[in-house]
């Protein structure tokens, strides 16, 4: 019995990576993205499982994440994908990470750091093919940057890359636009520097279009068994790696009209039993789930009723129940024949599965499933 615990199924991460690797065109590497502490699942455990499942590279977003992952997996090529302050850059390089470059000033800084550390910095030149976020939007500047990196002895040109804005939207044509733009830029760079790795695909793009695989795919969400298209991950052969558990701390009888929680947002219509679970938005069970979720207890779905508090939620068990204090409650995952996916929770909140698992707070211990 635990107040709140996220159980992490490392074997599922391993199988999901094997599934992704099998989907990739021959020769394309799988890079497992373990930013934001492995999308809330735990970066170390998941990186380890991903590598055993066929990933050959790891990626993170920040210098601090690079320091953590690089220390743990010194032999595995690591890419820090985000924008870096000079301090972040130092942290990433100290961890042995490769970094993204898209402006000349940063290229010069990375070169100076390479000289200072006596070892060339491996860089991936980023092209903004339409995401409108990080990267250089001018194809000629991207090529010029690649040449400048190659010519600088303290840098090693390792990659040319981009990121899709609408890979997860099957109806969007913009994916094709970005893909064609990147194909042109990648071909120009590789014509001069054949050993450079081109990479573009996130999880959605891997399933969407083999032409997006290039030399490597950077997969996050699917590694954790979350569906990149917000559907049922099982339909793509993926298995969710996180489940979220609590227990019934108390069960009490409600008379018609009795209310539960702050603001009395729910009242019993008739005689009923209400369970109290000792977790709440302090654990990442978002307040938007107030009167808007179903929780598994005793192998059945029960409505979350009332307002989600920081440390408690209440559940209507109905007029007849054999649920008792101490029984397990499942907020994400399976129990008996029932299942609540992170995708279902996300849909209720008007968000995506990524935000649901990232939102499980540091107060919740991660334990092996
Ligand atoms: C997070 C991220 C990814 C992984 O995307 P998923 O949709 O989780 O597979 C890939 N590339 C970049 C640049 C990212 O920021």
Question: How would you describe this structure to a colleague?
Answer:
This protein is of the alpha/beta class and 369 residues long. It folds into two domains: 10-234, Alpha-Beta Barrel (TIM Barrel), CATH 3.20.20; 242-340, Beta Barrel (Lyase, Ornithine Decarboxylase, Chain A, domain 1), CATH 2.40.37.10. The chain has helices spanning 10-23, 35-39, 43-52, 63-72, 86-94, 104-117, 139-151, 174-192, 203-208, 342-349, 353-358, and strands spanning 4-8, 29-33, 57-60, 78-80, 98-101, 121-126, 155-161, 197-201, 216-219, 242-247, 250-254, 259-260, 266-267, 272-277, 294-297, 300-305, 313-318, 328-335, 338-340, 366-368. The strands form three sheets. Strands 1, 10, 11, 14, 15, 16, 17, 18, 19 and 20 form a ten-stranded mixed beta sheet that branches. The chain has an eight-stranded parallel barrel with strand order 2-3-4-5-6-7-8-9, surrounded by seven helices. It has a two-stranded antiparallel sheet with strand order 12-13. Strand 4 (78-80), helix 5 (86-94) and strand 5 (98-101) form a beta-alpha-beta unit. Helix 4 (63-72) runs parallel beside helix 5 (86-94). It is elongated and about 80 Å long. The two termini are 14 Å apart. Pyridoxal-5'-phosphate (PLP) is lined by residues 33, 35, 81, 163, 202-204, 218-222, 228.
């Amino acid at each position: 019995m635990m107040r709140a615990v996220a159980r992490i199924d490392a074997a599922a991460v391993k199988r999901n990576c094997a599934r992704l690797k099998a989907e990739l065109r021959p020769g394309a590497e799988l890079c497992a993205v373990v930013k934001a502490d492995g999308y809330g699942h735990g970066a170390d455990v998941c990186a380890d499982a991903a590598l055993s499942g066929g990933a050959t590279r790891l990626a993170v977003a920040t210098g601090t994440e690079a320091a953590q992952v690089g220390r743990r997996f010194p032999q595995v090529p690591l890419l820090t994908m985000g924008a870096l302050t000079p301090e972040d850059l130092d942290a990433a390089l100290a961890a042995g990470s490769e970094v993204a470059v898209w402006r000349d000033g940063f290229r010069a800084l990375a070169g100076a750091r390479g000289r200072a550390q006596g070892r060339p910095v491996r860089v991936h030149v980023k092209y903004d093919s339409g995401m409108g976020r990080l990267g250089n939007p001018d194809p000629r500047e991207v090529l010029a940057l690649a040449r400048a990196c190659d010519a600088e002895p303290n840098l090693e040109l390792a990659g040319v890359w981009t990121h899709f804005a609408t890979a997860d939207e099957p109806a969007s044509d913009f994916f094709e636009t970005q893909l064609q733009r990147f194909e042109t830029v990648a071909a120009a760079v590789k014509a001069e520097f054949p050993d450079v790795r081109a990479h573009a695909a996130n999880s959605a793009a891997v399933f969407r279009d083999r032409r997006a695989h290039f030399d490597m795919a950077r997969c996050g969400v699917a590694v954790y068994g979350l569906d990149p298209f917000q559907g049922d991950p099982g339909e793509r052969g993926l298995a969710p790696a996180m489940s979220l558990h609590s227990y019934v701390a108390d069960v009490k009888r409600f008379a018609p009209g009795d209310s539960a929680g702050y603001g009395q947002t729910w009242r019993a219509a008739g005689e009923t039993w209400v369970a109290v679970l000792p977790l709440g938005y302090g654990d990442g069970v978002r307040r938007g789930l107030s009167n808007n979720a179903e929780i598994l207890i005793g192998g059945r779905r029960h409505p979350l009723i009332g307002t989600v508090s920081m440390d408690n939620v209440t559940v209507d068990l109905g007029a007849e129940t054999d649920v008792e204090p101490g029984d397990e409650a499942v907020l994400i995952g399976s129990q008996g024949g029932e299942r609540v996916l992170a995708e279902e929770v996300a849909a209720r909140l008007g968000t995506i599965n990524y935000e649901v698992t990232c939102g499980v707070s540091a107060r919740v211990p991660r334990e092996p499933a």
